[in-house]
């Protein structure tokens, strides 16, 4: 028995009339959601031991267990919902079905690793190998179905239309001996990205970045400026290592002899992340948490800059010249890292890193590329294919389970079809004469005050349950000792339920009124040729308003059934 990635697998023969490959899925004992995941496993009667056989080489129950293991906080919040529409009930006779793109992606990757390690175990009979190969064939089909939305093929650009910076960058790739199975290309409505110039199979390395081409704390300290950076760390003992990386990157951007000169020349000269929004654009985001979020991030960034400069420019003028290390350039460098940096684990430590060429891949929840890993043997960061990638496909990375506020804040775009968007609704704690009793009921029933409305506007049972408790009248409190679960599972009284719905309606309408303009007015602006940041602000408002309008419709439907 061996354990890898928290998954234990065992290989053994079965009876004489057949063979089986037995695998065991182990839950992470340090997982903060372990108890909830165990409850789901028990509720669905899913075992954590599985037999892969010639008749069922990839049991659905195994996929279900891996999906449960991959559940995160928001997946769990919505998972067990029997909301007003009932559409969030994922219970199926065969087990746990598709939950979210990020969850499915994690399940597929874990399953690939499980089967790959099972296939490498010895001793291993030919019959057992056949079972694993059948399982891998089925998994390959599932992976291809998952990445299909982004696996369309494109025709390569005409090289004659490339700008000078792209031509220079291609020369840099040749000089640095990059394997040219990928190419920089322009894609409709997206812009620059990477395209596959050959086909790739699942698990095949699509791109490798040598350690010496990575820009991070290690490359800064090992460079010709390493002694200066070591002195800077002594001068500012509390400095975060990422700050050294930013200083190094900004220096290299303005050094014509830098090894990465062509890379920085091709990097965007302007960004559209939230930090770059001016006062006029931020005014369009009134009613959302983003203005406060930007102010907090900007304040932290400015504090770091003011602590460093002009001290560094005065102390080391040749390394940190004042005309290069300006506030505007510092802001640009922060945006560069926000939009392009990775955090691979290198020799046991996660390090914020720029990975030239790889960082030109765009984002998709259905990305064909697996999260990169550092390979000790080759001293490279490898990017592997999740499924079959055809020649001419645009290559995508998955930036994570990001909502639109995160995409806009850190990457400078809005995804109008984002599958993860929610509206966060925080309830006020009880403050009436029964505040203590209500707080105890909320705790006993595991009803939080922090809630989420999903992109389809569904009202989670925990949100309704918490409101039922918060709005309890004194006489209704007498009914609860006979069943505290009533608050979460159903109506306490008609008056209480009516109060819950009316409170929700008032709250949602007030939030909508806090925005500038109506949803219809915002949607009418989308096709108009407004400046990019204005359109991004309006797009974000539209995504939030659509959630609120759908939730309001659900509330009105509930109210209509009560009259």
Key structural traits:
21 helices, disordered N terminus, 563 residues, globular, alpha+beta, 11% strand, 4-stranded antiparallel sheet, 3-stranded antiparallel sheet
Task: Describe the structure in your own words.
With 563 residues, the chain is α+β, with helices and mostly antiparallel strands. 44% of the residues lie in helices and 11% in strands. Strands 1-2-3-4 form a 4-stranded antiparallel beta sheet. Strands 9-14-13 form a 3-stranded antiparallel beta sheet, with no helix packed on it. Helix 4 runs antiparallel to helix 5 (126-147) and helix 9 (241-253) packs across helix 14. It is globular. The termini are far apart. Mean pLDDT is 89; it is low at 1-17 and 81-94.
Helical run tally: 21
Number of strands: 17
**Morphology call:** globular
Give the C-alpha Rg: 27 Å
- Determine the oligomeric state from the structure: single chain
Query: What structural class do the secondary elements suggest?
Result: alpha+beta
Mean pLDDT across the residues is: 89
Helix content: 40-55%
Largest sheet: 4 strands, antiparallel
The portion of residues forming beta strands comes to 5-15%
| Poorly predicted residue ranges | 1-17, 81-94
Instruction: Give the N-to-C terminal Cα separation.
Output: 62 Å
Order of neighbouring strands in the sheet with most strands = 1-2-3-4
């Amino acid at each position: 028995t061996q354990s890898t990635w928290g998954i234990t697998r065992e290989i053994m023969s079965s009876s004489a009339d057949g063979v089986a490959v037995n695998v065991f899925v182990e839950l992470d004992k340090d997982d903060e959601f372990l108890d909830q995941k165990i409850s789901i496993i028990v509720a669905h009667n899913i075992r954590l031991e599985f037999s892969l056989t010639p008749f069922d080489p990839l049991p659905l129950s195994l996929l279900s267990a891996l999906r449960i293991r991959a559940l995160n906080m928001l997946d769990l919040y919505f998972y067990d919902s029997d909301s007003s529409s009932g559409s969030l009930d994922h219970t199926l006779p065969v087990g746990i079905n598709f939950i979210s793109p990020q969850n499915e992606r994690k399940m597929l990757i874990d399953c690939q690793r499980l089967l790959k390690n099972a296939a490498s175990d010895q001793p291993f009979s030919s019959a057992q190998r056949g079972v694993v190969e059948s399982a891998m064939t089925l998994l390959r089909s599932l992976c291809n179905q998952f990445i299909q939305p982004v696996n369309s093929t494109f025709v390569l650009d005409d090289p004659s239309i490339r700008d000078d910076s792209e031509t220079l960058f291609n020369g840099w790739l040749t000089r640095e001996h990059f394997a040219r199975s990928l190419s920089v290309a322009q894609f409709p409505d997206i812009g620059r990205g990477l395209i596959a110039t050959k086909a790739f199979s699942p698990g095949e390395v699509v791109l490798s970045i040598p350690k010496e081409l990575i820009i991070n704390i290690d490359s800064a300290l090992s460079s010709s400026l390493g002694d200066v950076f070591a002195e800077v760390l002594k001068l500012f003992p509390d400095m975060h290592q990422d700050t050294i990386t930013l200083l190094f990157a900004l220096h290299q951007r303005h050094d014509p002899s830098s090894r990465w000169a062509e890379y920085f020349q091709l990097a965007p000269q302007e960004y559209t992340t939230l930090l770059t929004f001016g006062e006029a654009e931020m005014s369009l985001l009134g009613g959302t948490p983003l203005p406060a979020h930007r102010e907090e991030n900007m304040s932290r960034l400015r504090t770091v800059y003011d602590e460093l400069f002009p001290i560094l420019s005065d102390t080391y003028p040749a390394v940190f010249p004042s005309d290069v290390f300006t506030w505007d350039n510092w802001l640009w460098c922060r945006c560069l890292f926000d939009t392009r940096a990775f955090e691979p684990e290198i020799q046991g430590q996660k390090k914020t890193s720029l990975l030239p060429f790889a960082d030109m891949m765009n984002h998709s929840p259905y990305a064909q590329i697996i999260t990169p890993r550092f390979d000790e043997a080759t001293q490279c960061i490898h990017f592997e294919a999740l499924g079959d990638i055809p020649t001419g496909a645009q290559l995508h990375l998955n930036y994570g389970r990001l909502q639109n506020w995160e995409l806009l804040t850190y990457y400078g775009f809005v995804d109008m079809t984002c599958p993860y968007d929610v509206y966060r609704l925080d309830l006020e704690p009880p403050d009436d004469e029964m505040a203590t009793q209500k707080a105890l009921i909320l705790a006993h029933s595991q009803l939080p005050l922090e809630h989420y409305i999903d992109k389809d506007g569904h009202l989670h049972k925990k949100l309704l349950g918490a409101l039922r408790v918060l709005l309890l009248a004194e006489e209704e409190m007498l009914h609860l000792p006979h069943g505290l679960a009533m608050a979460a599972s159903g109506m306490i009284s008609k008056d209480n339920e009516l109060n819950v719905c009316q409170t929700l309606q008032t709250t949602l309408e007030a939030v909508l009124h806090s925005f500038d303009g109506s949803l219809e007015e915002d949607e009418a602006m989308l096709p108009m040729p407004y400046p990019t940041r204005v359109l991004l602000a309006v797009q974000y408002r539209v995504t939030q308003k659509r959630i609120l309008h759908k939730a309001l419709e659900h509330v009105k439907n509930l109210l209509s059934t009560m009259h």
